[in-house]
Amino acid sequence: MQVLLNLLAGVALLVWGTHLVRVAILSLYGGDLRRLLRHAVSRRFSAFFAGLMVTALLQSSTATALIVAAFAGQGLISTAPALAVMLGADVGTSIVTLVLSFDLSWLSPLLIFVGVVLFLARQEANLGRFGRILIGLGLILFALQWIGVSAKPLTQAAGMRVIFASLTGDVMLDMLVAAFVTILCYSSLAVVLLVATLAGLHVIGLAVAMPLVLGANLGSGLLGMLSTLRSPPEARRVTLGNFLFKLIGCVLAVPLLRFAEPAIAQFALSENTEVVAFHLIFNIALAVIFLFATQSVARIAERLLPMRPAGEDPAKPRFLDPSALATPALAIGNAAREALRISDVVDEMLQGLLTVLKTNDRTLAQRVRKLDDVVDELYTAVKLYLTQISRAALDPNEGRRWTDIVSFTINMEQVGDIIDRVTAEIEEKKIDKGRNFSEAGMTEICDLHARLTANLRLAMSVFLNGDLKSAQELIAQKVIFRDLERAYADSHLSRLAASTLPSIETSSLHLDLISELKRINSLICSIAYPILEDAGVLARTRLKTDEAVAASSVQ
Known about the structure:
The protein contains 23 helices and no strands.
């Protein structure tokens, strides 16, 4: 029992090491890797080698698949070049597997020691993140050594020999077992290395190892599809096409396995090297066969996964691609785009509010209030999406952006609630009773509304670009709006004193309305505060200092 637990611990450590390296590299070099992928897809071969290089760093073709699928879902990459990237990614992970199969046990303690020192010294800095990469590489090498030591007693156990012997001779069973284990481990790299280690210990032969390698590749393709199940069709086409590559490759390879074993044996390689060499040859063969057929496979994927219908539910998120969650910076960009959709709906509500005020259109009032449900659903979706992003994988700038998006969406949701409530009051106090504002009062409300709309659009620009000058202008508009609200309230009270009938009938609604518009404006303008605070130009308090109070009293 202890031997089995040791083996499982080694496998778990291997999976964790690959995960640690992938997350740390995405955190440290994710932006550069994404830019490399985006700029390399103009040509078939450049896309292939970009996928190879990125995956060689990430040590995970699944991670590359999620990045490329997210790009495709946003319309940044078409399906055919994305599939060329994936062919390169599969070759890249095969090369990594070959390198890690060598005896590098001497390097493991050095990598772990240096990595821990760097991480503890500067956890939040890039040096600390690089330390995490070294720790992950060290754990991978240590896990392979641990698996080798733990599995040796198994080679002497009769029961385990029976279990492994049951795999021999049934190619389909071997492939299914390896595919299932790959999905559980979330890493074909870990599974192929495990198979190579078992082959090196003579627990399994090459005849069993080769179908297991094919199954690991097939499982990798299935894993990509499962990871993008909730993504838009444009994103899922990439993982579907990559799975078709692997499926067709396995179908072609199975009849050739009986010829592959004696061919590989001629090179007189060690047992574990034979396994990883077969893995590399298989993926190179896939690249050679399909690199010039990416357009054809892309067309098949597009037929199987057609585009979304144009008339979709407005409350359904468009940019919150789950496949991007593995790349936090990309996921934050998606959340920001969805947050701007919320502000667009709020803008539509504001325009409808003014029309309802002018025309007493009850049908439009109902539509405006229903738009608040859209705002609420989108806000909830963005909030839940953001909570799935690993905060530990964010650098300081990305962490601030995460906070800004949360603050922006909260403000927009509150603005939608205020407009909903104001619209309901207009129906009750104005439309139901057939009342109208005075001409002067309506002019004042229209002026406040126009300024509010302009401030909302300026706030959207500030949120999108983070421009300091625009943020300062937004805060200046807040002061102007506050002064106007006070002035228009005084004007309304003056009309009441003059016994103006429309002003008397709508007095409560009028004062409530301009007060609520001021609240909306305050929520909108607060978007500028984080930018001003980062720039060091935001005062800590509006209260005068003791010196300023003394000077004003003297005057």
